[in-house]
Amino acid sequence: GYMSPEYAMLGQFSEKSDVFSFGVMVLEIITGKRSMNVYESHNSVEGLMGYVWRQWKEQEPLSILDSNIKERYSQMEVLRCIHIGLLCVQEILNDRPTMTMVISYLNNHSLELPSPQQPAFFLHRRRMDQEIAIQQESSLSHATNGSAVLFSINEMSTSNFYPR
Question: Which pTM value belongs to this model?
Answer without folding.
Answer: 0.67
